[in-house]
Design goal:
Layout lengths: L2 H22 L8 E2 L17 E7 L4 E9 L7 E2 L4 E4 L4 E4 L4 H14 L3 H28 L6 H6 L1 H5 L15 E2 L3 H7 L7 E8 L4 E5 L10 H11 L7 E5 L1 H8 L2 H8 L3 E13 L5 E4 L4 E4 L2 E5 L2 E3 L3 H14 L11 E3 L2 E7 L5 H4 L1 E5 L3 H4 L2 E3 H4 L12 H10 L6 H13 L2 H11 L1 E2 L7 E6 L2 E7 L6 E3 L4 H4 L10 E2 L1 H27 L4 H14 L4 H12 L2 E6 H7 L6 E6 L13 E3 L3 H21 L6 E3 L2 E5 L4 E9 L6 E3 L5 E4 L2 E3 L3 H8 L7 H23 E3 L8 H7 L18 H7 L10 E6 L3 E5 L5 H6 L4 H13 L7 E6 L1 H11 L1 H5 L3 E3 L7 E3 L5 E4 L7 E4 L4 E2 L2 E2 L4 H20 L10 E2 L2 E7 L13 E5 L11 E4 L15 H7 L1 H23 ...
Parallel strand pairs: 16-22, 23-24, 44-50
Antiparallel strand pairs: 1-2, 2-3, 3-4, 3-5, 5-6, 7-14, 8-10, 8-11, 9-17, 11-12, 12-13, 13-18, 14-15, 17-18, 19-21, 20-23, 21-22, 25-26, 27-34, 28-29, 29-30, 30-31, 30-32, 32-33, 35-37, 35-38, 36-45, 39-40, 40-41, 41-46, 42-43, 45-46, 47-49, 48-51, 49-50, 52-53
Helix pairs in contact: 2-3, 3-21, 15-19, 16-18, 16-20, 22-24, 33-35, 33-36
Length: 1172
């Protein structure tokens, strides 16, 4: 082997063994990542490769393996850099890894170290090591002995070369080329990897010794005619007394040494005819041969251990294969799949000699006619990278298809080609299973693809011994000759389990990993196309059900071949679970919006803004009023007043106007007022600076128009039927107390339609590279920048970045990648950062990146290209609900440390049940840009915070929804929660909601002195069919307060960045630390109770007649039960007294026109105190 071949071969072995070990032991590569500079190989890394570095500790030997990954796979098909280093004895000994054996030894020792009991596993580890080394040496032997170069073109142009082209074998099998039984001469003579061909050894057998099983074919017509003729010549007149049984020549020699066979030979019950007939070619499985002259495959017996098993043919397996083939014959015309061709086992034979049935067993398998054979290739060879050229043979077909289509191999072309592949592989196999219960063992060695001008047109599957059939399927009654106890029968769950492994994990995942390495696409793209193709296809009703399961299940099964070998459990293999990439995406597109005429939406929006304005000003005592029963009188002047019907709510004494009852009365005139009229009138009675009032009025007008715009175009389906990320966008209530709940000052109506969550169809962001001298960054302890970038971009895109950055005179490792909101880029960055752009301190990158959909907060965007990827919270010089939406640099720096701290608090907590602990959606990284000579317009204007998605945290049967939609009416004018209330009962549902969603926020305050701003927009309900399970909490960078003195000894505070003096002067209400227990309690209760539970209480009262006081009594009961269960912190319940008669709440409306102070609050009655 040349040095290049050796290097590629060794790298593929590292890949094979590391990927197998990492998958089967549950190692998450992302948790092993280290900065490039921490890698001893840093100076040897290729700067053009988009690699990530990792360090894995083999604890059994106190050794650390350092390496790099240049393709990070969603399913574990990682591709590694060429260099590896072992560091042992705590850094005192460092050596490059130049052979695979030291790694195999470390793996074997580690498996033994982690197994129980340890002493009993040393022998197992030694055996595993021996078998792995055997496989490596066999592979090395093939590389050294192979005569002449075999390039990718040979593999695709010749069927036999393709069948014999797998030098490495199964990428997740640690003994993929192990062979115990063949001598070196045998290997040369019989190995497909070395291009072997030979004649079969035939035995003439007395008919009474022969056992035949058939699936409807006459075995005599399957015998090689050339062998039949030569046998007749050898046997002469005795030929009609015998039947022929072919045998592998190695196996024949093995059997001829058997005493029983010698006796049969002596008695002429068996006659050894030797090698006769046509020349056959061993296929990738070694024991199965292709018989080109008869067009059949023949599965022979070999008493040789290949990979994990002795490869003979036991009777049970023969019967199973024939039974499967009999069942295939019963497939009806409406159940067959045009794009799927199955090669049944036609007949099988063995000898009726006890203990030798398996050794003589042979199976005749249907083959392919010449026209099909010329265009059909084994997939296992097509995805094995050529060790001589580094090419992927499959690319020949992709390139051919592009040439025929007169186009280039672009991302779009690859995605179209792959969609076609799914249509002729996974889809027909799934429909076959859905209709007939037949689950194919379609791994890549059993699967062949027929191509036409480079386009996949038909999947061919062979080896029916691996087929499993659902026992109660329609085929059972059609085929009585298959006995009820046949091993072909499986339960539905077992057969579906095997389908998911062989078709999805073994087959598709390998192809996707291979294509993504070589083509301008990503695994994300290909998995998304896989799911979309399944989703969009015409399917049977049964097929729809299985597609839905496949797209939603979180985990797929993977056979653990290394652990099975280690535990010697090959017949009952070990299985592990891997993440199902298909569940990461949304396939049905965004729900269409139905646009209506503006008149009614405008009237509804104006009424809401006016009502909410009066409710807030009355409650905050900015307006005086007189109340008689449910009638409210609000004087403005002697001649002018406002009248309405209203109730004073039990919840904090909030004033609730009855919609549509507000009237303006002047002299004898009464009318429904406009917003402009209201603002002119109230200016006469509220003492305020005119410019402040004018600004407030502008906010309200903007809110009115933009809310009307949202109401004009409502989704075509109810919110309750949407998935979480779309609910997060389409929930259109906004803040239910603040009158400027949708002002979005800075957006015009066109921009609001594009970037506002209620109407947006999604968009990509602008990506820039920023010089390190301008940035401040902080990441979570569990993440680094390489990980974050790879969640957004493919390896090829990162390579493209490096080229673009180099062309601008910069280096990749001295810049940071930052997403910028498109609106912010055009309105702010291109204007106020032009100096940095001109100097190439900021480089706008030519890349699309993921698509995003805005969440309720507008500036936080959900990644809709990959629902599992983090969301991004982007700085925007926009004012919404009266607050500027820039990201102050100190809060960006604090985001990750605060998140890690809260996450650890929850992890270490021993009070809350594990199943109901809150999910902390960590802000995993923050990056802000601060030029040295910063002007006010640049402060906080260019920054991003990355936040974890909730989807990875959801279990199989769980869903998430924003807490905001719990208090919203749906399209049908019924509450979103109506089906849940009806199913679970209103009191039961409310109690579980308080226990699982709201109590954990209180718990964090009582136990750890930590207050969260948990208003409804910052909370997600995790539920199972509407029943509350737990809460997910988010938005911590500026929504947490604490007291060092009141935290308790168990809490370790992270190092946080203080707000600069200038920021505190402008925004005195933004602070982290306080020494006041009351401020912490009020901060919690203001968000959790005043603007969250109070709205829910009122909403449920309005729509279900459930008494508000009873709602708060239920809440109090839950709290009292918690306090009763935790008497050890009774002093904390008094310190943070949730039952205090009064609490302070923020005056959100008055803040808009009164001077800014540290806390503009007012004392109000606490409903938890009054609810007894």
């Amino acid at each position: 082997m040349t040095s290049t071949q050796n290097s590629r071969w060794l790298n593929k072995l590292y890949e094979q063994y590391l990927n197998t070990y990492f998958r089967e032991t549950g190692v998450e590569i992302s948790k092993l990542e280290i900065p490039h500079t921490n890698n001893p190989l840093f100076d040897m890394l290729d700067p053009t490769e988009a690699s990530i570095c990792f360090a894995y500790p083999f604890t059994s030997s106190d050794t650390i393996l350092y390496g790099s990954i240049i393709h990070l796979s969603l399913t574990g098909y990682h591709q590694y850099g060429e260099q590896f280093v072992l560091e042992s004895a705590k850094g005192f000994h460092v050596e490059r890894l130049t052979e695979i054996q030291p790694l195999l030894k470390l793996i074997s020792q580690q498996l033994a170290f982690e197994a129980e009991p340890l002493d009993a596993q040393h022998e197992a580890a030694a055996t595993l090591y021996e078998h792995m080394c055997n496989s490596v040496e066999r592979s090395r032997f093939f590389m050294n002995e192979r005569s002449g170069p075999i390039d990718s073109l040979h593999l695709v142009k010749d069927f036999i070369t393709s069948e014999q082209g797998m030098l490495l074998g199964h990428p997740f099998h640690v003994t993929s080329k192990a062979n115990i039984g063949f001598s070196e001469d045998d290997i040369r003579r019989y190995s497909p990897e070395l291009g072997a061909s030979f004649k079969l050894h035939y035995f003439a057998v007395a008919p009474e010794l022969l056992q035949t099983y058939a699936s409807g074919h006459d075995v005599s017509k399957l015998i090689d005619p050339k062998a039949q003729y030569e046998a007749e010549q050898l046997l002469g007149t005795k030929s009609n007394q015998y039947e022929l049984l072919p045998c592998h020549p190695w196996q024949a020699n093995f059997l001829l040494d058997n005493d029983e066979i010698r006796r049969k030979l002596d008695g002429q019950a068996i006659i050894s005819l030797g090698p006769i007939g046509q020349v056959v070619w061993p296929t990738s499985s070694v024991r199965t041969v292709w018989m080109p002259e008869t067009g059949l495959f023949l599965k022979l017996s070999l008493d040789v251990r290949i990979t994990n098993f002795i490869r003979n043919n036991p009777t049970e397996q023969i019967i199973r294969a024939i039974d499967a083939s009999r069942l295939l014959n019963k497939i009806g015309p409406d159940e067959s799949q045009e794009n799927l061709r199955l090669l049944p086992e036609l007949a099988a034979q063995t000898l009726k000699i006890p203990e030798l049935e398996a050794s003589f067993g042979i199976v005749y398998r249907a083959g392919l006619e010449a026209s099909a054979l010329a265009k059909t290739r084994i997939l296992g060879s097509l995805v094995e990278e050529n060790l001589e050229t580094g090419e992927l043979p499959l690319l020949h077909y992709i390139n051919q298809a592009a040439q025929v289509a007169n186009t280039s191999v672009t991302k779009d072309f690859i995605c179209d080609w792959w969609a076609q592949y799914i249509k002729v592989s996974l889809l027909p196999a799934l429909e076959l299973f859905a209709k007939t219960g037949i689950s194919l063992e379609a791994h890549l060695q059993n699967s062949l693809m027929r191509f036409e001008n480079g386009i996949p047109i038909q999947l061919v599957v062979r080896d029916m011994e691996g087929v499993s059939v659902v026992k109660d399927s329609v085929l059972g009654t059609r085929c009585p000759e298959v006995k009820h106890d046949s091993s072909v029968w499986y339960s539905t769950d077992e057969a579906w389990f095997r389908f998911k492994y062989y078709l999805v994990v073994n087959h598709l995942a390998h192809l996707i990993g291979a294509i993504a390495r070589f083509c301008p696409t990503t695994e994300d793209d290909l998995w998304r196309i896989t799911g979309q193709t399944l989703f969009d296809a015409n399917k049977s009703e049964q097929g729809k059900s299985y597609v839905q399961q496949l797209l939603q299940t979180r985990e797929l099964p993977a056979k653990a071949n290394m652990l099975s070998t280690f535990q010697k459990s090959g017949e009952k293999p070990v299985w592990v679970g891997i993440l199902n990439p298909l569940c990461r995406y949304h396939y049905c597109g965004l729900t269409p919006l139905n646009k209506t005429e503006m008149t009614v939406p405008y009237q509804q929006a104006e009424q809401r803004v006016i009502d909410q304005l009066f409710e807030a000003l009355l409650f905050e005592r900015a307006l005086s009023y007189q109340q008689v029963n449910d009638s409210l009188h609000i004087p403005v002047t002697k001649e002018l007043s406002y009248q309405c019907n209203a109730r004073i709510s039990f919840s904090f004494g909030r004033i609730r106007l009855q919609p549509g009852t507000l009237r303006r009365q002047e002299s004898d005139q009464s009318n429904a007022p406009s917003l402009n009229q209201v603002m002119l009138d109230l200016a006469q009675v509220i003492e305020v600076e005119p410019e402040h009032w004018t600004q407030f009025q502008q906010e309200l007008i903007q809110t009115l128009v933009k809310h009307a715009q949202a109401l004009q175009s409502l989704p075509a389906i109810p919110l309750r039927e949407m998935t979480y990320f779309e609910q997060e966008a389409r929930a259109n209530n906004g803040h239910l107390y603040h009158p400027s709940f949708k002002s979005r000052i800075g957006f015009d109506l066109i921009e609001n339609e594009r970037f506002g969550p209620e109407l947006s169809s999604g968009y990509p962001v602008v990506w820039i590279a920023v010089d390190q001298s301008l940035i401040q960054t902080k990441t979570s302890e569990s993440y680094n920048w390489e990980t974050i970038y790879r969640q957004q971009f493919s390896s090829s895109e990162i390579k493209s970045f490096k080229t673009q950055i180099a062309e601008a005179g910069k280096t990749f490792h001295k810049v940071a990648l930052l997403p910028v909101h498109p609106w912010q880029w055009e309105k702010v960055i291109r204007v106020f950062y032009q100096d940095q752009i001109v100097k190439a301190q900021m480089i706008k990158l030519n890349v699309k990146g993921p698509d995003y959909l805005p969440q309720q907060s507008i500036r936080t965007l959900s990644n809709v290209s990959n629902l599992w990827a983090p969301s991004v919270k982007l700085a925007m010089s926009l004012i919404n609900t009266s607050t500027s939406r820039v990201l102050a640099p100190h809060t960006v720096q604090n985001a990750a440390p605060i998140s890690d701290w809260l996450w650890q608090l929850v992890q270490d907590d021993v009070v809350l049940p594990e199943a109901h602990k809150p999910i902390i959606l960590r802000e995993i990284a923050g990056l802000s840009v601060s030029p040295s000579l910063q002007i006010p317009a640049q402060y906080g204007a260019l920054a991003c915070i990355w936040r974890e998605s909730v989807y990875p945290y959801l279990k199989e049967d769980q869903s998430a929804c924003p807490v905001t939609i719990l208090m919203q009416l749906d399209l049908d004018k019924r509450p979103v929660i109506d089906p849940w209330i009806n199913q679970h009962g209103i009191e039961n549902w409310i109690q579980k909601l308080i226990e699982r969603v709201y109590l954990p926020v209180m718990h964090l305050l009582w136990q750890y002195g930590t207050a969260l701003e948990s208003h409804a927009q910052n909370m997600l309900l995790i539920h199972q069919d509407g029943m509350p399970i737990k809460v997910a909490l988010k938005d911590f960078h500026d929504g947490v307060r604490y007291s060092r003195e009141l935290m308790g000894n168990s809490v370790t505070l992270p190092e946080l960045t203080d707000a600069p003096t200038a920021h505190a002067a402008v925004n005195p209400n933004s602070f982290l630390e306080t020494n006041s227990a009351s401020e912490l309690r009020d901060f919690t209760q203001d968000a959790l109770c005043f603007v969250n539970l109070a709205e829910l209480s009122w909403f449920i009262h309005l729509h279900y007649g459930f008494d508000e006081e009873k709602f708060w009594q239920l809440t109090r009961t839950v709290i009292e039960q918690y306090q009763s269960n935790n008497p050890n912190i009774a002093d904390r319940f008094k310190l943070f007294d949730f039952f205090a008669a009064q609490i302070d709440v923020e005056q959100l409306a008055s803040r808009r026109f009164l001077p800014e102070i540290r806390l503009r609050v007012m004392s109000v009655a606490n409903p938890l105190s009054g609810a007894r």
